[in-house]
Design a protein that fits this description.
204 residues; alpha+beta; three-stranded antiparallel beta sheet; three-stranded mixed beta sheet; 35% helix; elongated
């Protein structure tokens, strides 16, 4: 990219064409006056500041590089409706990163299971016509499986809020919370070996 700088010297208009290199520095295509060199240096400094500012702004729009204190604003701009400052940082960044996909599938089973998966909760969803006997038309059931903590009232309220944000607004549901223990399998092994040496008397 090149830049042309006009300068009036002794009533005459002169021009200095500068080339902008990849390193961000201006290189004059031909020699000019001292004033032109000063202008070139000034413009070079301004362009470096603008380039640095542009890089900073772009990082604010990425969930992985956005400063933690700015994440709530990024979440708001991406349409994240449920936000809690007590969430771990990893969950906050993941919620923002998945917001576009979450909006694409809003109102589906995937949206519900994905919203709960951020908090290490599994879910099994069944529609009213899948039940035996059939449930009330237009309803569904959500079986939530929790294994990382105990089930208490705050967790139930948080789970309902997540489901309410992700489900279709026109349907009702029944929530069943299940405490699921992770099986711990311990494998122990022992290796034994022995050797026997027989010594015979030396004979000619």
């Amino acid at each position: 990219m090149s830049t042309e700088i006009n300068h009036i010297d002794n009533g005459e208009l002169t021009s200095l064409t500068c080339a902008h290199t990849q390193e961000g520095e201006f290189k004059p295509l031909h020699h000019g006056s001292v004033l032109q060199a000063q202008l070139q240096k000034l413009i070079d400094t301004e362009f470096k500041a603008l380039a640095k500012g542009a890089n900073t702004v772009s990082s604010l729009w990425l969930p992985d590089t956005c400063p933690l204190e700015h994440l709530p604003w990024l979440a708001w701009s991406q349409g994240v409706k449920e936000w809690d400052e007590s969430w771990p940082e990893a969950i906050k960044r993941q919620v923002v990163a998945d917001s576009y996909l979450q909006h694409q599938y809003l109102g589906t089973r995937y949206a519900i299971t994905n919203a709960l998966a951020h908090f290490d909760m599994g879910a099994q969803i069944s529609e009213w016509f899948e039940h035996h006997p059939m449930s009330e038309p237009g309803t569904f059931r959500v079986d939530v499986y929790v294994s990382h903590r105990g089930i208490d009232l705050p967790l139930i309220k948080e789970t309902r809020k997540l489901i309410d944000r992700a489900k279709r607004k026109s349907v009702d549901y029944n929530l069943h919370m299940n405490l699921q223990a992770k099986p711990v399998v311990e494998l122990n092994s022992i290796h034994c070996s022995s050797s026997m040496t027989t010594i015979y008397p030396y004979t000619h």
